[in-house]
Amino acid sequence: MSNQTGNAPHTLPPLPYSDNALEPVISANTLGFHYGKHHKTYVDNLNKLIAGTELADVSLEGVIAATAGQADKVAIFNNAAQVWNHTFYWNSLSPKGGGEPPASLRQKIETSFGGVDACKKELANAATTQFGSGWAWLVKDGDSLKVIKTSNADLPIIKGLKPLLTIDVWEHAYYLDYQNRRADYVSAVLDKLINWGFAADNDV
Fold first, then answer.
1. Which residues constitute the domain of residue 123?
2. What are the Cα distances from residue 79, in Å, to 4, 10, 97?
3. 171 in a domain, yes or no?
4. Binding residue per annotation — 39?
5. What GO annotations for molecular function exist for this entry (predicted)?
6. Which of 128, 168, 124, 131 is nearest to 147 (CA)?
7. What is the SS3 string spanning 32-56?
8. CATH code of the domain containing 196
9. Separation of alpha carbons 95 and 192, rounded Å
10. Using CA atoms, how far apart are residues 45 and 104, in angstroms rounded to an integer?
11. Which of 11, 95, 135, 194 is most buried (most C-beta within 10 Å)?
12. 13 lies in some domain
């Protein structure tokens, strides 16, 4: 999921749908600010921070791996991880989302959680109980699936886990549409936008 080609700086990847495609769950107004301002700022900040350094020509995943847990590189890690997280989040949503997962993924969800509804309940719980800013994730841990939550810019790939889906619970992801009703946003995303096909594609 690198956003880099050759020696070019990191770029803001295009959205996989139009800015009004997720309405009414997520408005074009929210998407405009979230993608066009927040996501873009992370990309711009990352490029400024790594310009002229040994990380200037490194892939996005490489930058994340090289800076995770490094006290003197926190700003680089935070911006690189947020570029990665947001790109992954946009792909975790689909205008035709919700519904049932593909058969192969559904079988693994049933084995790990007991059923799709139980999986969704765990995702909703992780997303609504994450204190402050962060993310709820469906991840692959060895042969099983589980739900985790991370704070701020933290992400599963530095924990040896393979992310399949994520829900952004930073306030800028939902506040313009839902104000403080995070649970309503999470429920609507899980019911109408979550991209099980993307998760199935990642489950390899």
1. 103-202
2. 15, 11, 28
3. yes
4. no
5. metal ion binding; superoxide dismutase activity
6. 124
7. HHHHHHHHHHHHHHHHHHHCCCCCC
8. 3.55.40.20
9. 8
10. 39
11. 135
12. no
Q: 16 near 96, Cβ under 8 Å?
A: no
Residue 76 has pLDDT above 90, yes or no: yes
- If one counts the domains in the chain, the total is 2
User: Does the annotation list 86 as a binding residue?
Assistant: yes
Do residues 138 and 197 share a domain? yes
Q: What is the CATH number of the domain that holds 43?
A: 1.10.287.990
Q: Are residues 112 and 183 located together in one domain of the fold?
A: yes
197: Cβ–Cβ under 8 A, 6 or more apart, which residues? 94, 102
Q: Is residue 10 part of a domain?
A: no
38 has binding-site annotation: no
Same domain, 85 and 117: no
Cβ atoms < 10 Å from Cβ of 200: 18
The reply to whether 112 and 80 lie within a common domain is no
Instruction: Give the pLDDT of residue 2.
Output: 43
Helix (H) / strand (E) containing 117: helix 116-129
pLDDT tens figures, 84-110: 999 999 999 999 999 999 999 999 999
Residues 66, 156 within the same domain: no
Residue matched to tokens 């985790």: 148
Total residue length of the chain:
204
Residue 172 counted as an annotated binding residue: yes
This prediction has a pTM of: 0.94
For 18, counting Cβ atoms within 10 Å of its Cβ (0-12 exposed, 13-18 middle, 19+ buried), the class is: exposed
Residue 15 lies in a domain: no
Would you place residue 5 in the very low, low, confident or very high pLDDT band (cuts 50, 70, 90)?
very low
